[in-house]
Design brief:
two-stranded antiparallel sheet; Puta_zinc/iron-chelating_dom; alpha+beta
Length: about 220
């Protein structure tokens, strides 16, 4: 565990690795769903998030767009976010008891909370967002157990690759002024990674990394 010199005021001043213990366990939340309201602008969905949810519900990306997720523009890039509903801005994946019915397949940002990621060159670690969870006494839990993701190393490789890809794309399109070109880039991005059709026996990570070089070449990313 190391000391965190940035993010002052929102963290406990430490960074955590996957095997570290951290006070993040809300004990099943006990019926609380505060972190599932009003977060539409915060929960950006990466391609794996969409793949997991769509596969679990046996629906397509475009079917999710009808009611559960929405496209938002950020720095000229259009990416899917969780869609909030009603006056309380309630996540569409909450059931009548305010429990997440895709919990085992929830987005990576939801999976992390109240942790966040801090990127360091070609790696990332975790930090605890102090006071983000409304529960008064969070219990200690190993970071790996709290995140609870299968194939952690493959997932981490994907998250790093996607983070670097979007970062590079953001820089690339900063200088584009033509709306038509921006529209074509964003449509390509959604088709290439969010509307992926996997071959029989192919897993998500294999499909993603097979497409990534083609996308970089197409979009002019080194």
């Amino acid at each position: 565990m190391k000391t965190l010199k940035t993010l002052e005021g929102i963290s406990d001043g430490k960074i955590y690795d996957i095997k570290d213990m951290v006070k993040a366990d809300a004990g099943g939340c006990e019926g609380c769903s505060a972190c599932c309201h009003g977060v539409g602008d915060l929960v950006v969905l990466n391609p794996f998030d969409v793949y997991e949810i769509a596969s679990y519900l046996n629906v397509s990306f475009d079917e999710l767009l009808e009611d559960k997720i929405e496209l938002r523009l950020n720095d000229k890039i259009i990416l899917p976010h969780l869609k909030m509903h009603g006056e309380s801005e309630r996540c569409g994946f909450l059931n009548e008891e305010d429990r997440c019915y895709v919990h085992a397949h929830r987005p990576n940002i939801c999976r992390l909370f109240p942790l966040g990621r801090v990127y360091e060159e070609d790696d990332f670690k975790y930090f605890l967002q102090v006071g983000a969870c409304l529960k008064n006494k969070l219990k200690k839990v190993k970071v790996k157990k709290w995140i609870g993701i299968k194939n952690h190393q493959e997932n981490k490789a994907f998250i790093l690759a996607w983070h670097n890809f979007i970062k590079a794309l953001s820089f690339r399109i900063k200088f584009i002024r033509e709306e038509q070109e921006l529209s074509e880039i964003n449509e390509y991005l959604l088709n290439m990674f969010y509307r992926m059709t996997l071959k029989e026996g192919e897993d998500f990570y294999t499909a993603f990394f097979a497409r990534l070089p083609e996308a970089k070449a197409k979009l002019g990313i080194i």
